[in-house]
Task: inverse folding
């Protein structure tokens, strides 16, 4: 229940709506009680003879409210008898029926008003929760996502959050409304007959215990079901991403069988969960009917013995029947909340995940004027070191190229610079300032990144280029596109710069996508440029256009280039040769060729234009 109350704490920001909801619910209960109390005079008018009403008038009640033998019931019956005598039984019955209808109308108006204001609270809390989760997703380090399934994360943010909305926040309505109803009706029942109300004191703990047992079992099943749904979503996401391979390798049947088995497993778990959840309602209803039956039997004995007035007993049963509905609602809300709490447990895996890449507060980096230095840098993802004792200085305006076989640590070196990961040992300094001591925004604001696989968004060409500079003008975007050799092909698109490029830029060729990502970097105009094998996946013509764009981008700029095709980095100021996480050679192209070492072997494997 501690998790449940954490969600309740979110109501603080919506206190006026919560207070208004409670007030409207309280008013609805008052009108409901009023309409039920009016049943007593109706019964008295219908079943009391004229002689009995005359007998009531013959014994006026004590008027002193503080007297020990003051009786409110007697006052009510005496006033009723007076009205019947003056107006007639038919006229009084008509007025009572009108009052009942008016009370029920007001009750339902208040009930709707309570639901009207709580709609803002429910949806506002979910909006805040969704914003918080998305913010945490953006804050979490890349290492977190390497251990998680993307589909499972999507399931947590969509399905699990929806479960919280439908299960827990709908339960909040019952939490605000039903306790007021139960307490008010319970007090009324005690006033009407303390002897009969003893059975309620016995009933509620027994019912609560049974519902609690069902709820705990339901929560376990719900958590298992939501985890399996996350697995199902992961399979679906992987299938959509890998359709080319699935079709190309004739693996449709294999993929379908895998999905079918996971879907069957999920369905079986959900069937069990719903069966357990649906058990709460009939259990609470059966217990409620059993309670009414016991009260009918015992109350009948009191009426036969003259200890309880018949009209009061019938009204008591009516009040009791009205008490069963909110109790049943609370038990259903508790049962449903267990599913929401299971979803909350999964969402907490994101919201309570530790953020390891934190803002530094000690130093400030507002510009880049001198050098970037890797000082005795070592790094490991888990146990094995990927980089070992790296010493490297990148002077402003210089182009440094990283080469080496796959797995030698080139990309890791580049990822450490914008703090996608933090060094395990040593430090990376920009103008003498350890980047871990500066704000993340300041460090990354100095950098532009162009990756091997262009990262584009399902938006317009204009918005993709202006992604790093939201206030960019049309002229600035077009100029960046011209420098990146992208302007001509953009104009040929159906709507030019306003053309939507599809998911991940799927409507464009590989070379076009890469030139857009280069235009994005050009527009940002970063002080430090990181190029991660930006031309390795392109054909010859596209590579020529992209390489020309890159050369324009790197002019008078500090660049760290990861090269797969060595022909693209012959003019780098310094080439760093990596092998198994260490720097084994360094120098310019000609110096390394003359050494006839690792770099020479790599170049011999490739042909130069």
Result:
């Amino acid at each position: 229940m501690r998790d449940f109350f954490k969600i309740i704490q979110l109501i603080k920001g919506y206190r006026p709506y919560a207070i208004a909801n409670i007030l409207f619910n309280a008013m609805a209960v008052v009108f409901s009680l009023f309409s039920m109390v009016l049943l007593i005079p109706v019964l008295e008018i219908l079943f009391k003879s004229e002689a009995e009403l005359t007998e009531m008038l013959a014994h006026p009640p004590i008027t002193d409210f503080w007297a020990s033998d003051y009786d409110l019931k007697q006052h009510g019956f005496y006033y009723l008898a007076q009205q019947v005598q003056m107006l007639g039984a038919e006229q009084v019955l008509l007025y009572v029926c009108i009052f009942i209808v008016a009370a029920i109308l007001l009750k339902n108006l208040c009930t709707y008003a309570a639901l009207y204001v709580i709609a803002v609270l429910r949806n506002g809390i979910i909006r805040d929760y969704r914003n918080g989760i998305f913010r945490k997703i953006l804050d979490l380090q890349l290492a977190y996502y390497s251990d998680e399934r993307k589909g499972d994360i999507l399931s947590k943010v969509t399905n699990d959050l929806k479960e919280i909305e439908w299960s827990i926040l709908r339960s909040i309505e019952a939490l605000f409304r039903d306790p007021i109803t139960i307490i008010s009706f319970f007090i009324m029942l005690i006033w009407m007959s303390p002897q009969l109300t003893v059975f309620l004191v016995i009933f509620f703990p027994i019912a609560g215990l049974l519902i609690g047992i069902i709820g705990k079992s339901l929560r376990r099943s719900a958590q298992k079901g939501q985890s399996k749904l996350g697995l199902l979503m992961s399979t679906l996401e992987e299938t959509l991403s890998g359709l080319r391979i699935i079709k190309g390798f004739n693996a449709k049947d294999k993929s379908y069988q895998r999905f079918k088995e996971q879907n069957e497993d999920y369905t079986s778990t959900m069937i069990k969960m719903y069966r357990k959840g649906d058990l709460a309602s009939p259990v609470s209803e059966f217990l409620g009917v059993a309670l009414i039956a016991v009260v009918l039997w015992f109350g009948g004995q009191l009426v036969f013995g003259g200890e309880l007035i018949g009209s009061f007993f019938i009204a008591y049963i009516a009040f009791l029947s009205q008490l069963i509905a909110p109790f049943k609602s609370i038990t259903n809300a508790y049962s449903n909340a267990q599913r929401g709490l299971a979803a909350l447990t999964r969402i907490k895996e994101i919201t309570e995940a530790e953020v390891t890449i934190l803002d530094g507060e000690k130093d400030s980096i507002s510009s880049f004027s001198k050098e970037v230095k890797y000082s005795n840098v070592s790094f490991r993802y888990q146990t094995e070191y990927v980089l070992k004792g790296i010493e490297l200085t990148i002077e402003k305006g210089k182009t440094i190229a990283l080469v080496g076989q796959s797995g030698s640590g080139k990309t890791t070196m580049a990822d450490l610079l914008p703090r996608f990961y933090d060094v395990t040992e040593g430090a990376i300094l920009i103008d003498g300032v350890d980047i871990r001591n500066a704000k993340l925004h300041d460090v990354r604001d100095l950098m532009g990144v162009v990756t091997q696989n262009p990262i584009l968004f399902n938006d317009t060409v204009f918005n993709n280029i202006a992604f790093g500079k939201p206030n960019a003008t049309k002229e600035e975007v077009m100029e960046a596109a011209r420098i990146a050799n992208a302007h001509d092909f953009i104009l040929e698109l159906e709507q030019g710069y306003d053309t939507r490029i599809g998911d991940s830029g799927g409507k464009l060729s590989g070379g076009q996508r890469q030139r857009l990502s280069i235009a994005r970097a050009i527009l940002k105009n970063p002080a430090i440029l990181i190029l991660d094998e930006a031309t390795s996946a392109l054909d010859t013509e596209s590579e020529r256009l992209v390489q020309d764009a890159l050369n324009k981008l790197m002019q008078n700029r500090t660049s760290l280039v990861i090269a797969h095709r060595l022909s693209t980095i012959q003019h780098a100021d310094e080439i760093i040769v990596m092998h198994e996480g260490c720097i084994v050679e360094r120098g310019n192209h000609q110096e390394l060729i003359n050494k006839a070492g690792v770099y020479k072997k790599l170049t011999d494997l490739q042909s130069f234009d």
Notes: The chain has 21 helices and ten strands.
